[in-house]
Amino acid sequence: MSELRDMSEMTRIRVARSDLVLPTVIYESATRIFSALLASGKVTDENQKSAMQKAIGMAVELAIETDRMVDKDSGERGHFGLR
C-alpha cells in the first residue's frame, strides 16, 4: 500500500472534470475502502482524517489504473488523458 503515488503527482495529470470516471464511482470506492479500514480497527479518533485521505487517494489510484488498463490496448487516451 505504501507504493501508491504521492498525491502531489496527481496535479500533473490533466483531468477533464466531465470525464472523471463518474465522481460517484470514486466516492463509492473511497467509502468502501474507508469502511474496510474502519471494520479492521485501523481507524481511530486521532487518525480518522488521514484514514479518509488515504481511502480517497486509493480510490483515485484505482480509477487511474483501471482507466489505464482498459484503454491501454485501444491506443486511445483514457479518461485521465493517459496512454
Key words describing this protein structure:
2 helices, 83 residues, mainly alpha
Question: Brief description of this entry?
Answer:
The protein is an all-alpha fold.
Would you write up a description of this structure?
The chain has about 80 residues and is an all-alpha fold. It has one domain (about 5-70). About 50% of the residues lie in helices and about 0% in strands. It contains 2 helices and no strands. It has helices at about 25-40, 50-70.
Q: What is the CA–CA distance across the termini?
A: 23 Å
As a whole number of angstroms, the C-alpha radius of gyration is: 14 Å
Question: What is the approximate shape?
Answer: elongated
- The figure for the number of domains is 1
For the sheet with most strands, the description reads: none
Unreliable spans are 8-14
Task: Quickly count the helices.
Answer: 2
Mean pLDDT: 76
Topology overview:
Layout: H1 23-39, H2 48-71
